[in-house]
Amino acid sequence: MCEPLAVIQKVCMFHVILLLLLATLSGCSHTLETKDPSRTQVVMVHDGDTITVAFQGTSQRVRLAGIDCPESDQDYGEEATKTTKGLALNQDVRMTG
Predict the structure, then answer these.
(1) If you placed Cys at 40, which of 23, 46, 53, 68 could pair as Cys (CB 3.0 to 4.6 Å)?
(2) Residue 58: alpha-carbon gap to chain centroid
(3) Cα separation of 95 and 97, whole Å?
(4) pTM surpassing 0.70?
(5) What is the pLDDT of residues 28-62, one digit of tens each?
(6) Which has more confidence, 81 or 7?
(7) In the CATH hierarchy, which fold is given to the domain comprising 39-94?
(8) 50-78 CB burial, b ≥16 within 10 A, e <16
(9) CB under 8 Å to 51, separation ≥6 — which residues?
(10) Are the CB atoms for 47 and 69 separated by under 8 Å?
């Protein structure tokens, strides 16, 4: 009597593994696409809310939308700059707007 239940469990486990494998492979296919022209890299951090990116062959100074950090010479400005450097410097980003 337990045998049909064991077969169902094996079939379900096979389907779960197959779905995970397909999800992994479909995620890999995105890396094979041509480079998105809106993607770029952060090359400099000026302060907590201003960066420079290398975008379409030029350097562009960018103000981060929705972020308001103290300037570098204000209270906590140095900490804000260090945090943004740690999070963004040399990272790939997407330009929208």
Answers:
(1) 53
(2) 22
(3) 7
(4) no
(5) 444 434 467 778 899 999 999 999 999 888 999 99
(6) 81
(7) OB fold (Dihydrolipoamide Acetyltransferase, E2P) (2.40.50)
(8) bbebebeeeeeebeeeeeebbeeeeeeee
(9) 42, 44, 45, 61, 62, 64, 84, 88
(10) yes
